[in-house]
Amino acid sequence: MSGRADAPLRIAVPNKGALSEAASGILRECGYRQRRDTKELALTDHENGVEFFYLRPRDIALYVGEGTLDIGITGRDLLLDSGAEADEVLSLGFGRARFHFAGRPGDRTGWGDLAGARIATSYVGIVESFLAREGIDATVTRLDGAVETSIQLGVADAIADVVETGSTLRAAGLEVFGEAVMTSEAVLVARSGGDLPAGWEVFRRRLEGVLVARSYVMMDYDIDVEHLEGASALTPGIEGPTISPLQREGWVAVRAMVPRDGAQRLMDELYGLGARGILLTDIHACRI
Ligand SMILES: Nc1ncnc2c1ncn2[C@@H]1O[C@H](COP(=O)(O)OP(=O)(O)OP(=O)(O)O)[C@@H](O)[C@H]1O
Ligand SMILES: O=P(O)(O)OC[C@H]1O[C@H](OP(=O)(O)OP(=O)(O)O)[C@H](O)[C@@H]1O
Ligand SMILES: [Mg+2]
User: Fold this and answer.
1) Same fold: 97-184 with 217-282
2) Which residues share a beta bridge with 13?
3) Residue ranges of the domains in the chain?
């Protein structure tokens, strides 16, 4: 990819399916233009030097692996299934799902029971490499979707598929068996060992900024200096909390980023230490 130093960064984005809306959503939060109409197949954001191509998530790792596109957003499971020469460079925290074997309740209890089974899946790559790794001899049938129905129709004895809420399995009267084969989420992929255009660093920083902003909140509180050390230990922030004087003698204002998870508990602890005027605010974007 050398010789493309000033060329726009070419990014693959899921055009439909489970990852599509959230992928466009995070890109919009990063300040990039996104298509308004789901029929649009490509869009150039001239101001930011980026081109977006809306593709099937299953094809994205292949385009990136071949170097046709620089980077893409797809599922970790789809990346693995594709066998493309592409690597995960950043996990994006949405589109979380587990990849499981499932069958009729009581038929099978663990991976060991897969020997000799007919397994239907849309993820043949993942299943075949799993079976090879575990030394299990079974038959794999590729289906495009609605794999749950294949058992009822007598085409398969077991299925291997993505499970999110489990409601599709329940509706089909099926149950998972064995451990999850893998856990998946949306990831950013880039060609293995490839050089990326200069714009890539800015793109990555913007995404990381939004991811941090999603998982952290800003906490402000007032506390008497006697308890400042204990309170600061609870809210160390990134480089250390910002401490500002207050007009009230012996009191200071403290400001620090804290993880969103557990922030309410932290507020209780700070209150218990004597902090008052404790405020939590959302962060929309940041550069750490
Ligand atoms: N509930 C879900 N159903 C399917 N895929 C999901 C779900 N949650 C997350 N994913 C992830 O989305 C990706 C599948 O993308 P895909 O476009 O095939 O979705 P889809 O919902 O099956 O779309 P379609 O059925 O239109 O093909 C995988 O990485 C998968 O792990
Ligand atoms: O655990 P759940 O929350 O029920 O989600 C998982 C289901 O969703 C997906 O199917 P999808 O709706 O994409 O249909 P498809 O099989 O035609 O792709 C996936 O293949 C499972 O069937
Ligand atoms: Mg699907």
Assistant:
1) no
2) 54
3) 9-95+185-198, 97-184, 217-282
Q: What is the pLDDT of residues 71-89, one digit of tens each?
A: 999 999 999 999 999 999 9
Minimum CA distance residue for ligand 2 atom 20: 162
Distance 30 CA to ligand 1 centre (A): 23
Fold (topology level) of 217-282: Alpha-Beta Plaits (3.30.70)
Quick one: pLDDT band at residue 1, thresholds 50, 70, 90? very low
Pocket lining: 78 vs ligand 1, CB cutoff 6 Å: yes
pLDDT (tens digit per residue) in 154-180: 999 999 999 999 999 999 999 999 999
Q: Whose CA is nearest to atom 15 of ligand 2?
A: 145
CA distances in angstroms from 276 to 183, 241, 248, 249, listed in the order given: 41, 16, 13, 15
Distance from Cα 245 to the centre of ligand 2, integer Å: 55
Give the number of whichever ligand sits closest to the CA of residue 143.
2
The answer regarding whether domain 97-184 maps to CATH 3.40.190.10 reads yes
CATH of 9-95+185-198, picked from 3.30.70.1350, 3.40.50.150, 2.40.50.140, 3.40.190.10, is: 3.40.190.10
Pocket lining: 176 vs ligand 2, CB cutoff 6 Å: no
The SS3 call for residue 231 is helix
Q: Which residue has the tokens 């977006």?
A: 52
- CA–chain centroid gap for 164, Å, is 13
Contact 260, 219 (CB under 8 A): no
Mutate to test the pocket of ligand 2, among 81, 143, 168 (most ligand atoms within 8 A of CB): 168
Q: How confident is residue 5, by pLDDT bands cut at 50, 70 and 90?
A: low
